[in-house]
């Protein structure tokens, strides 16, 4: 018999029960639901709305229920709709009358909002920890691969030579902002809805600051209608996840490219590769393909939440029950993406010879040559034009810029002098970079040091 | 040991296995996978690529495996990655050597594309059947509630009186187009990828028309690269589902409004209502709120698929493994939405008295009055203006249009005559409609008859 | 002739020019582009990469160009591709040779990233200002409508009575978090990409901290590859806008409902209503319908940006040119939504009599009655059940709870006493609320005071 | 003065006017609006609702207005809200009284639905024509590049050798299904809403079949409420565009990869390339990057439309005004994507030598070798294993499969014989393919011939 029985004479149909149940997924909230109930019962007792004895029965009963759930001994019942009613009804089965007082000055509306905020808070903490793991893996990879120069790309065309470390640290930066977004979200959601009840608060003498504080919230939410009706915190959370997923999808693309025969920069270990059921020679970087692909569902999840909330009137509407699955899916997915990306980083090796051999292609030193001319006083636009013609000359002769003779160069501009050869060639070019944040060795070394310290790694 | 063992010396890590497995959900393809394997084995035998004995062993083995799965006796193993390898490996366990020939001239790339198209085809058939159920429920509801006039709304403002039947049939029309979209999708996806192998076809003497025909496809896909790399059929399917979900979300909104105290048009039975854990008087139309809300995830699912496929190079990429869960989720969701909407339609009653009492509000006959003036030869824009002033007069006097005296009306235009009162009042107004497709009684009766016949219901 | 002329011998086709141009929309960046160029030129001069004379020519030229653009005298040319090249080329036309030095140690990659961050920073400031305007309008509306009780809804069913002020302040709370999100985004994006050049930095002796500081950024971005390739700041911005748009869409829904004949809570002034071309009596709350509807495009915009960035390799790719239009559209839309919502708030009146007359319906005092029983020591679940039966009794008798006699009540529970009538009726019910954040008069008054002070309004 | 003047005493505020106007974009419907008005006026005259003289004045007036618009002489006024009222008001200015009769038995609700369907129908025809152009360009490219073998990829790892023609035709197939989707959408939307009026039809003696037929619709829509409230046709249209955009984004990715230094398969002409403002050597395939990138906004557009319609009650709501901009944007974008993709196809050359030189890498003949063993009677799984070991042997020796001696091969399986060398090497491998739809020369030739005929190209 349903909890709202009083004025109802008939049960819902099977189809409706199946369609409206949430227990199949919201049971994942059980720890937070029990934690919330503990805080609520203690407050009720303190405020005289429940006896100490009843409170103790409830707390003991909740302990037992939590134990059973953890051990897989608890039977979840779909006819009890959701995690809240399953636990409350089981508590009644277990301890009888006192359990009926637990829902005093509480509605499922404020209860679920509380549970869900607690859950999201924990999830954010887990993700942030895993971001750090990923950053550590990337910094380790950078430390292990000092000195490697790779082509830097724009438009997937070779652009300028960069240090591999510089590329790896770009992702460390991006994920760091992702962590920042999550922590901002955490701070903004960390307010307590408990006591907002159905939507209007209550006339019973509850003390919301007590429960808020017991649950480690910053303070109670100020407006009870707002407290039960808004899910902006969940959307913000999934937005932050989506941006992170996009960052990781770009890493996925990068490493899939780098693993290809054509790029050939990295070889993944067998531990992070898979093969083909038909083509015996294949060794595929599947984990990073899936990192790229799974970003799609993280985006789908936030779209679901946004669309869900659009145009709903105040306050709680049953539509909001649909808020949890996208959040659970997004969290599970990004945790996996982070874990596997870190694992991939720990299981690849760089093909230094092959990278080095391929470096001369693409005239990566052209911009350095233009800078050379600027050093000599030529306006940049003019330098750009001269170097453009130098490259055209190379294309005609099928050679590198450093292979042009001084006479050839001088035929394009009399400014060229012997010292030009100190600017040509990939190694020379990369050594010339010096601006803050650039790929120059010292700049990158100092960036690396920054991260080693920030991440608490022992300096190497 | 993995199926691609030859050149691999190490297993993937646990995290990678967890992240890349698909068996937790793609086992839902088992029936279609087995069906495909049956057709493939029979073709291989016919083409001399397998003996009749081997084929018979395989077919018997597949029967046994299907039986076990159906009875829940089959153990799905994550280390066997996916449904295809689970079944093939179980077949090898069961019948030994012959099983090793089943994957001849087949790759998981064409195999999964085949399974997935078969699955989608069946899913479409189920959805189309349920659309019909829903349409029948709506037509039944219309038949049972003949003669009721309700306000028609634009901008959620009362606009013109309409027959309730007319409103209900609008949804029947919309869902009918949804079925059309699904059937177009079905026809377009019903081509067979089997035999495309990894991406390039094969040199073994297979006969693709034979498997295509055995699986009731229209014909084999013409281009093997296209066959394994595209998922446009799945996106089209989910797009059609999304449009249908939007239609149902609008029905959800409509019925949530109609169930409110303020509208008060319908009372849902207890069988499709739920109550509140805190407010004893509440009776909520939750199923229709969830119909509205669940449209969001159907949209999220198609966004996932679109984003997933964006920018992938040819041919198969592991990202595509992520194609199934959104499709499964979308299908499950729309099946539920349709079922519950039909059930709701069968469990509501219209509050005729209350509807009737509320009809005079909103000047629903104003446009009919303007048409009256047009009948009398007044240009429409001028009529519109005269009626606008009549309404202003009513607002001032707090009365209905039919309460204005002829003198009052004539003060706005001398054209008004006694016969004007045949056009005023909601019943008069609704009776005046006569254009094809309008809310006039005869028009609606003929629409209703059209649907009764089209849906194969006995005319009433 | 294009700026990259050196190695090119042919112009792009017309179709390609049309397809790849961005000047039709990125000219909106002109102020920020010029501001960036001023800072860059000053830095180059300070660092000896340009003479003081050249710098002064450039600064004067930029002033003149800005003047011309502002006055509509500037001719934007599609063959000059984008805002950067239009301005640089015009500068060359205007001042000749010195202009060719402006692009020293700068690429369009870092230039556009700088412009775009500056633009977003300004846009956020505008939106935050308009949020405050909206909040002020809502608080004013609340102040003007003290004492009005309206039904509070869950599931769009009447739930409990609430003060109108309480409802209005819920939206003030929500928008306040939106402002917080925008300001967090502002702080996170306020780092300077200038000097990252194409992707690797430069070997020329620039001083990035100087330009960063001149442009009021917190500091230069640390990693040049990250600086030119990431657009996470734009996605975060549009995510925040989307959440706000969802909040406003809910307000739109609320006010559309309240304007309906059925709810009848508010009457919008003509100044914010529109009529019908065919139905003379109509007066529609179009602005709020559009507020609700336009939330859709704000969501579409963020989906565009997320999808755009998915799976792109490092560093800059031309795809990123598509980042601006969704941002411009989102900003323009939310500015309009905020403005019109505030204007609507200033142009509605509440129909107090009608609201009051309708209040008895829906048993809004049922939960208060349950609390009464809790006060008397009945466990909540039991109270809930008793009140459920009381409501059923009312339904049978078609009366309100307060109309039940004490005997009737006592037939359900002997606990009921004369004092029960102090808890029944909407006014009594609303007066009983007392918890923090509840709809009790004192709680709401203190919330209102909080906002009056926070928004800097004179206390009333 | 607004058209709904009668009961209004005040104009909307400037902010509301700015926010609610649609004339800035819906003027693009002018041709279809005028066409609809012509049909409507003729019908009204035929039905005796307007004199022949009035009809002729109206038709002449509409001709003049269309002329003015086409010549840019027409002044669009924001205070006249939208395209419909601008044209009707201009007609009144021009011909006076008769113009006031044009809106008889018509509302903007059915008028805009009619215009929009006509517009979409034309847009579909344009897109389908451009799909054909694109297909022709691809087939031409295939014809010009007969005989080239390229690596086929799965997981972006080299898989099997394929004919370049086979790859190109895969895209021709995909776009053909896109055209099919658009034509299905066209057929489904080609029904006439005109005469549905505001939502309920009319009592005036109109003849909807006459206008429907004059406007080349299949027939009038059956239900007037459905006719004015649904936008499923627009969502279906944008869904089809999205799927096509995804196909083109994959082509974009493919060609960006192929243009890279690392792949080096194609060289785009200067006519479809752009350079860099800072790096003089760069030549970027920008048009295809933008084809990839612009797919994002096409997806954003359909998300906007889906979200827009979610949860709206019947019938017309002002939200629906927002339906046009996403459709216009999607259409403009896909037209550009198709045009530029075709142009790119006409402006690339394949680097045959380089492709050929790179072919040996990646063991593309491994699967053919496995098929060889199957031919010899080895079960496929066993063959796969033997070839896996052969590849491992090659990796150890850093050689190709064809470089293994017969003795070496026999050490893995005694089945290997001299004839194995007819299966090894890329040319041999590609020649072995023979299944329907495979990359075998004859199969591809027949596919090519199919397309040449279907597209009406002269057979070559």
Q: How many distinct helices of chain A?
A: 18
Radius of gyration of chain A: 30 Å
**Global geometry of chain A:** elongated
Helix and strand content put the structural class of chain A at mainly alpha
Question: Biggest sheet of chain A, strands in spatial order?
Answer: 1-2
Mean pLDDT of chain A: 94
Q: How far is the first residue's CA from the last residue's CA of chain A?
A: 66 Å
Oligomer: homotetramer
Q: Outline the biggest β-sheet of chain A.
A: 2 strands, antiparallel
Percent helix range of chain A: 55-70%
Summarize the structure in words.
4 copies of one chain form a homotetramer. The model of chain A has no long low-confidence stretch (mean pLDDT 94). In chain A, strand 3 (191-192), helix 8 and strand 4 form a beta-alpha-beta unit. In chain A, helix 4 (52-70) packs across helix 5 (83-95) and helix 6 (108-144) runs parallel beside helix 12. The first copy, chain A, contains 18 helices and 6 strands. Helix content of chain A is 59%, strand content 5%. Chain A has helices spanning 14-20, 23-26, 30-46, 52-70, 83-95, 108-144, 164-189, 208-214, 224-229, 232-259, 286-309, 324-345, 352-358, 366-375, 380-397, 406-412, 426-432, 441-454; strands at 149-154, 157-163, 191-192, 219-220, 266-268, 348-350. In chain A, the strands form 3 sheets. In chain A, strands 1-2 form a two-stranded antiparallel sheet. A two-stranded parallel sheet of chain A has the order 3-4. The radius of gyration of chain A is 30 Å and the shape is elongated. Chain A has 460 residues and is mainly alpha-helical. Chains A and C meet through strand 1, strand 2, helix 7, helix 9 and helix 10 of A and strand 1, strand 2, helix 7, helix 9 and helix 10 of C.
């Amino acid at each position: 018999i349903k909890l709202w029985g009083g004025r109802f004479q008939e049960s819902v149909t099977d189809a409706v029960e199946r369609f409206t149940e949430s227990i199949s997924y919201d049971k994942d909230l059980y720890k937070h639901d029990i934690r919330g109930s503990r805080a609520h019962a203690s407050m009720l007792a303190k405020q005289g709305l429940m006896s100490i004895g009843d409170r103790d029965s409830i707390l003991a009963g909740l302990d037992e229920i939590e134990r059973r759930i953890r051990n897989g001994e608890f039977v979840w019942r779909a006819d009890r709709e959701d995690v809240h009613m399953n636990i409350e009804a089981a508590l009644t089965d277990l301890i009888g009358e006192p359990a009926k007082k637990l829902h005093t000055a509480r509605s499922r509306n404020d209860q679920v909002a509380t549970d869900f905020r607690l859950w999201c808070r924990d999830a954010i903490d887990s993700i942030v920890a895993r971001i750090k793991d990923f950053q550590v893996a990337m910094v380790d990879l950078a430390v292990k691969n000092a000195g490697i120069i790779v082509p830097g790309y724009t438009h997937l065309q070779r652009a300028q030579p960069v240090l591999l470390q510089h590329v790896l640290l770009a992702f460390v930066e991006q994920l760091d902002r992702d962590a920042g977004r999550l922590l901002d979200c955490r701070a903004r959601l960390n307010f307590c809805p408990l006591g907002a009840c159905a939507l209007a608060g209550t006339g019973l003498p509850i003390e919301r600051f007590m429960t808020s504080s017991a649950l480690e919230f910053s303070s109670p939410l100020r407006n009870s209608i707002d407290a039960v009706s808004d899910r902006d915190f969940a959307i913000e959370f999934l937005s932050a996840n989506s941006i992170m997923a996009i960052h990781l999808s770009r890493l996925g693309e990068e490493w899939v490219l780098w693993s290809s025969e054509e790029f050939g920069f990295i070889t993944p270990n067998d531990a992070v590769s898979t093969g083909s059921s038909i083509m015996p020679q294949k060794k595929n970087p599947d984990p990073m393909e899936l990192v790229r692909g799974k970003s799609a569902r993280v985006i789908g999840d936030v779209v679901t939440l946004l669309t869900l909330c659009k145009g709903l009137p105040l306050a709680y509407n049953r539509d909001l029950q649909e808020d949890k699955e996208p959040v659970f899916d997004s969290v599970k997915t990004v945790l996996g993406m982070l874990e596997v990306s870190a694992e991939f980083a720990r299981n690849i090796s760089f093909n230094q010879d092959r990278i080095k051999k391929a470096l001369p292609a693409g005239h990566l030193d052209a911009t350095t040559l233009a800078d050379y001319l600027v050093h000599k006083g030529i306006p940049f636009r003019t330098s750009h034009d001269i170097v453009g013609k130098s490259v055209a000359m190379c294309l005609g002769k099928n050679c590198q810029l450093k292979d042009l003779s001084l006479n050839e160069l001088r035929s394009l501009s009399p400014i060229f002098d012997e010292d030009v050869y100190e600017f040509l060639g990939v190694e020379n070019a990369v050594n010339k970079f010096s601006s803050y944040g650039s790929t120059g060795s010292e700049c990158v070394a100092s960036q690396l040091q920054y991260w080693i310290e920030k991440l608490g790694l022992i300096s190497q």
